[in-house]
Amino acid sequence: MDQDHPAVIDMIPIVVFLLMILLMGGLKPFLDLMRYIRTRYPLLFLPEISPAYRQYLSRHFPFYNRLSNKGKRIFEGRVQKFINKKEFIRRDSIHEVTDEMKVLIAGSAIQLTFGYPDMYFDRFVTIFIYPDEYYSRLSGAYHKGEVNAAGVIVLSWKSLKEGFEDQADGIHLGLHEMAHALRVIKKLDDEEESYQFFDSKKMQAFDLEAYREIAKMTEGEEPSLFRDYGATSIEEFFSVSVEVFFEKPDAFFAYNPILYSALAGVMKMDLRTGQKITVMD
């Protein structure tokens, strides 16, 4: 039997314990324990990835390539699960939603939330894919991507692919919009999605230092590592910071170790050179 999976006999006490918890403690402790088991033995609860998808992970995701063999299998299973849960809808001149489109979108989401095994953006079921920038009736402007509380993520395929072509420039639409989705989830305070997600103290530590950086950017007294768009709001700064965190971790840490460490705490990962990618407690 695969060493990553516990022997069936080892699961018997766990099953018995689960039943006891359910009978004695009610649903909440039972769900808590189930989440613990899914975190401890993730491969038991993840589907096998479609072979057609794997090539796009190795081609486009340096993050995935840095993982251990077990980490790769978890990443693959989570990508497949994300794809299974979403409806991808083509817009305008997009004639087909391709495997590559699905994997680049799903991979962006899973890379961002690799520290949160139960996070699949369940509030967002529909993903619209446009060929290029599109006109949004909500804002009355053209966009490359957006997220709204109605449960929709919208992306420009051209802009999404550009983010994968240069993964050292700190600009990545997939990560940017998925980071927005996380802030929306937190703001709506959905109990299911928020379980062990965005530890309040860690997020407060990030926001506190982020506001200092935004003030510096606004005053323009010294050049910032972050692009100007990040200074428009705390939500945009978070998304811009996430892009830089994944694409320029060493430069980020050198520029502001306090801000980097705060975001690493939120993401539950440290991505600096020489650091093994593992999920933090």
Biggest sheet descriptor: 4 strands, mixed
The H/E string reads HHHHHEHEEEEEHHHHHH
Under the CATH scheme, the architecture of the largest domain is Orthogonal Bundle
What name is given to the CATH topology of the largest domain? Cyclin A, domain 1
| CATH class bucket of the largest domain | Mainly Alpha
Chain oligomer state: single chain
Which of globular, elongated, flat, extended, rod-shaped describes the shape?
Answer: globular
Class from helix and strand fractions: alpha/beta
Unreliable parts: 190-196
**Mean of pLDDT:** 88
Cα radius of gyration in angstroms: 20 Å
| Count of strand segments | 6
Measure the end-to-end span.
Answer: 28 Å
Please state roughly what percent of the residues sit in beta strands, choosing from under 5%, 5-15%, 15-25%, 25-35%, 35-45% or over 45%: 5-15%
Range of helix content: 40-55%
CATH superfamily of the largest domain: Glucose-regulated metallo-peptidase M90, N-terminal domain
Q: Report strand order across the widest sheet.
A: 1-2-6-5
Count of helix runs:
12
Number of spatially distinct domains: 3
Description:
With 281 residues, the protein is an alpha/beta fold. The chain folds into three domains: 8-45; 51-188, Glucose-regulated metallo-peptidase M90, N-terminal domain (Cyclin A, domain 1, Orthogonal Bundle), CATH 1.10.472.150; 200-267, no CATH class. The chain is 55% helix and 9% strand. The chain contains twelve helices and six strands. The protein has helices at residues 8-25, 27-40, 51-60, 62-65, 69-85, 99-112, 157-165, 173-188, 200-219, 234-247, 249-255, 257-267; strands spanning 87-90, 126-130, 134-136, 141-143, 145-148, 152-156. The strands form two sheets. Strands 1-2-6-5 form a four-stranded mixed sheet. It is globular.
